[in-house]
Amino acid sequence: MLNHLSTALTLFTRRLPAFSPRTFSGALRRLCRMEAAVVRCLPGEPKLTISFCLQGSHKHMLRDQDEPLGKVLARISNGIAKNQSKAKKSKKNRGQEQPDEAAEPTVVKLFYDGEEVPETVLNAEAWQDGSVLQVGDVKYSVQRNAPTFTTAELPVSLLAGFPVCPKLEVEFGNVQDCEFTWFRENCPHTRSEAPGKASDQDSGWTQVGCERVYIPSNQDISFRLKLSCTPKDGSRGGLAKELVSVGAVEAGPGVCLFDNRHAFTAKVTDWPTVRVVSYNILADIYAQTDLSKTVLYPYCAPYALQLDYRQNLIKKELAGYNCDIICLQEVDKGVYVDSLTPALDAFGLNGVFKVKEKQHEGLATFYRRSKFRLLSSHDIMLSEALSSDPMHAELLEKVSANGALKNKILQRSTSLQVTFLEDLNKPGRKVCVANTHLYWHPKGGNVRLVQMGVALKHLSHVISEVAPGAPLVFCGDFNSTPNAGVFQLLSEAVVPPQHADWSSSGPEESCSMELLSDIPPLLSACGLPAYTNYVRGFQGCLDYIFIQPDCMQVEQVIPLPSLEEVTTYEALPSVAHPSDHIALVCDLRWNP
Fold first, then answer.
1. Residue 135 belongs to what domain range?
2. What are the 2',5'-phosphodiesterase 12-like N-terminal domain coordinates in residue numbering (predicted)?
3. Domain identity same for 175 and 263
């Protein structure tokens, strides 16, 4: 029997027209599988969408869910007839008129389990997953609510040695399940070519990777990248999407300030150790001002202050720390949504964001989802809490003794981000992660003291309400050196009335009081570095990670860059470092 089948196949192939290898392989693919017709239909929504490719044209139909199927099928058939009529008119205008022939309408039907679906059935019921749409001789496999990319973008700036993380959002699927294939263009890209346009020939690209994140090498410089990604939900897949980079990969800056630090953080820590980072990443709205370019950072190359360039460095730096908890300050809202979230999600972290009122930047906290589960957030604007929450009434009354100081404090949009996480390795164990960026002015010590007083009372209250006994990890840019009142309040739990910071902005805004913390003395996990901020006019320690020493202990502090490294380009930021601050990174261990 096999011999007869072999002979029949031989005779069949001899009778086939003379196809080119490419045409023949395409024919085989069409024989072996149907194209997809993707249907999006959700309960409660009045419309559904039907998407498929017909005669090289992508069709996207928006129809009522309660409309009879027959109207959709007729619309498809009429659309084909209209296109055929246009084609005939075009031939006639070119002098290629053919004898009029009454074209038979294209048969359009929908089948389910081999049976034709009646045209009276409503769309919501008719378009079932696995049904078959027949349009003339072409058949489509209907995928209802298949995994679909609602957002799929590549970053604009690509640097050799720096991770490329696509921004992806999937409906009816999971980004972690998606499949990825990266390609490099075979010919160097020239600026005259249309941006983002892929070559029509597959031979123009060479596969270079198959992970969600691709790190271009020096061999990729001057070449564009293409990503083919398939949305999936488990084993169920949707329509693949191709993304082509706008420009070519460019050379990176070489050695960065954080590269040597990554040697200490090459792997994710093992439980019960938790790696924490606090980092002011310098908001773009501050880096791009004339003041920044001409007064604050005149030593920094202008291109190194550009957001696209700095984002590459920030993403590589954060990814290389392999942290479990990341607290960031001065995070542009767009940077959080379009850059940090896609990048850090690819490296296993989820995030929450608190934007400053009347600002376009704020605070971001990320946590490793394999280690922690988000329980709740309890963010506040400190000035608003001071003026409206009864728990701060006593402090407000003392501040009100000086109207000028009170008004200055209430005008500030400083926020406190409070995030409760649960340890997945030990269910029931919780941690409170706080993140803030206090008032910046060098003479604002009194403002910062009041802001910290509000923050500590709020933290004490929410910990007792949400997770009694949960340890506190308090990160941030406190804009306070170790001799400031804020540091004393955190480390000693009290600031006396005679502290110099109470009159830091002059006698007209002086307000002396004893300020007590509702939280026991905290420990600066990274000690007291000589500097965490290094610019031409100032070098000092402004950033901290505070912990409760009775709950956690410091296992390792990642060394900060040496003075020689920091001053390679005079000061920060530079072509080798994206911010004027340096990230604090430490490994903490739960106490037994």
1. 35-79+106-144
2. 147-250
3. no
Q: Is 224 in the same domain as 323?
A: no
Domain count, the chain: 3
Strand partners, 332: 361
CATH of residue 570's domain is: 3.60.10.10
Q: What is the pLDDT of residues 130-171, one digit of tens each?
A: 999 999 999 999 999 999 999 999 999 999 999 999 999 999
Largest alpha-carbon pair distance within the chain? 106
Residue 437 one-letter amino acid: H
Place of tokens 């191709």: 242
Whether 316 and 262 have beta carbons less than 8 Å apart is answered as: no
Q: Give the integer Cα–Cα distance in Å for 280 and 323.
A: 16
- The residue among 108, 152, 332, 176 whose CA lies nearest residue 242 is 152
- Give the domain-ending residue among 249, 270, 286: 249
Query: Exposure pattern of 82-119 as b/e (b: 16+ CB <10 Å)?
Result: eeeeeebeeeeeeeeeeeeeeeeebebebebeeeebee
Instruction: Please give the positions annotated as active site.
Output: 477
The stretch 535-558 carries a mean pLDDT of 97
Three-class SS state of 582: coil
Say which amino acid occupies 77: S
Contact call for residues 178 and 75 (beta carbons, < 8 A) = no
Are 582 and 588 spatial neighbours (Cβ–Cβ below 8 Å)? no
Whether residue 275 is contained in a domain is answered as yes
| 3-state helix, strand and coil shares in percent for the chain, rounded to the nearest 5 | 30, 30, 40
**Pair of tokens at residue 146:** 């298949």
Tokens of 259: 């590269």
Q: pTM here?
A: 0.86
Residue 446 near residue 405, CB atoms below 8 Å: yes
Distances (CA, A) of 423 to 212, 318, 527, 592: 27, 22, 26, 14
Q: Helices 485-492 and 445-466: crossing angle, nearest 10°?
A: 30
Q: Are strands 523-524 and 472-477 parallel, antiparallel or unpaired?
A: unpaired
Residues 441 and 497 in one domain: yes
Tokens 């739990």 map to which residue?
Answer: 493
Please say whether the dihedral angle defined by the alpha carbons of residues 191, 197, 201 and 204, taken in this order, is positive or negative.
positive
Is 233 found in the same domain as 125?
no
Mind listing the pLDDT tens digit for each residue in 382-403? 999 999 999 999 999 999 999 9
Q: Give a yes or no: residue 29 inside a domain.
A: no
Backbone torsion region of residue 83, taken as left when φ is above 0, otherwise alpha when ψ lies between -120 and 50, otherwise beta: alpha
DSSP state, 348?
Answer: T
- Examine residue 438 and state whether it is found in any structural domain, yes or no: yes
Same domain, 184 and 112: no
